[in-house]
Each structure stands twice: as C-alpha cells, then as structure tokens.
Write the structure tokens for this entry.
Amino acid sequence: MMIHIATELPSFHSRYQSEQDCIEAVIAMKWPNGFICPRCDHTKCSCLSSRRIPLFECGRCKHQTSPFVGTIFEGTRLPLLKWFITLELFLLPDGISATRLSQVIGVTYKTAWLMLHKIRHALGEFDARELLYGDVKVNSDQYGRNPDRCTVSHPHASAVVAGCTVDETGEPQQVKLRLVQQKRGSDRWAARRDLTAFIDEHVDSLSSDVRLFPQAFRLYSPLRNIVREAWKSLKSTYGALESKHLQAYLNEFTGRRWLHLSETEVTIGQRLLQMCVAVPGISYNQLITRQTNQPFAAVA
Ligand SMILES: [Zn+2]
C-alpha cells in the first residue's frame, strides 16, 4: 500500500508537480547554455519528442542523445517525478531509509535501495573531488562508539580518520570521514600514517595549515562531536550498518551536512541535482561486489 506523503511527512512538500517539470529541470541542468552535442560540440539539434524521455538529434553529425546519458537517471524505467521526490527526501535532516522510501514512492525495496545508493554515489564523487583547505584539523577517531555509554568495549566501532576545515570560531565547516582499512573493534584506531595518507589524498596541503590529533584521549573535540552526530543520525535512519557500504553512508552524512551548511533552502536541491546529473550512476552489480572499506572514489 502506498503511504501518502502528506500524512506521513507533514513538513514535506515537493517542488515538482509533473513529469514534464522534472525532465525540463534535468535538461536545464545538463545544458544550462543550451544543447551541446556530446560528439561534435554542435549546438543545434532537433528534438524527437514522441518518446517518454526526449531524444535530441544533433543538426550536424546526427548523433542522438538523451539528457539522461551520463547521469544517475540513465536507464531508469521509473517516472522522474519519483526520483525528484527521492532527492528531496534524501535531503531531510537524517535522510530516509530504503524501506521507508519504498513505501512512500511505491517501488520495491531493492529499487529504493539502489536509487539511494546512486544518489550517495554522486554525492561521494563530488566529496572526493573537493579537497579541504585553509585551517584544517585531522583526528584519529572511531565511528560506532555509543557516545552516551563510556564503556571500554566497542566491538563494532570502526577506525576512521576525520578531517575538517574550521571557521574563525573553531567550528567545523566541511568535514570528511574516511574508514581506515580493516580496522574494526574496540582497540583499533587510525595510526599516524593513516592520518598522513588522509592528508595526502584529501587536503590541499600547500594552502592549508594542518593540525593533527593522533591521540585518542586528546582529539579536536568539535570534530569528534561531528563523528558522534554521524553515528546518531545514521543509526536513527538505518540502524546498524554493515561495513561494506559504511563509507558510502559516511559520505552521505558529511555531504548532506555540508549542503545544509553551505547552500540556501532554494539552492540546496539544485546543487544535489547538479551532482546527480554530472555523475554516471553506479550499477547494482558494482554495489554488491564492492569491497569492504573500499575508498569510495575508486568505484568506477
Ligand atoms: Zn554532433
């Protein structure tokens, strides 16, 4: 049974009302200055609009292309309106689980799971491209510790390197959380070399003042609080997460947090759509064969 959005999510109102609105939004995002042929850069085309998804034919080389090619929407059989509602639900403070999404938009659990992972993938790809720079702090931390219980044993905690930029008051701005390979368990923490590797990959060292916090008992506390927030938020929506996809969920948390911090209410949806239009979708097979703790950007 399809659950009515208005009753289930009282604060939620989709900006998009029709399939045509959504298709036009993708076309506008894909070609903001008008059509450009992906093969020959020609800018004139004719539109074969008898199809559900419009097909554009280049006026010079006759190459036919859809606005969905190279986006996470490529190959989808679903109405785009369902995708757009999903994007909006993804931006809710704690996101939405695949179970809940499947009920809200009336698709199978597997379809909902794959849609959410495609969005996560787009967000993760953008996150991987944006280096931290300026005043940067880097902690060796653990994800999965219950912040309300200071017990010694945390069998499911995963070692992470957490890095952030901070503003003048020391508040974290852009944050990145990276799992450290195969370190799960109470006494496992990222080593100094893991922090150095993080800086090599994710920090623009030339334009940054980087400070490391490698000791568990002396971490940069505003950043440590974000790792705890990530755990609380992801746990509230998804319950316990298997380590195979944990990096993708960490990227979802930091990506969404950064979108809410850096964008306005008007631009946040546009920014997420921009990412989804710029990144080809990850396939179901790629997702299920993903290795545990695989660095996210390495997934083709
Ligand atoms: Zn062409």
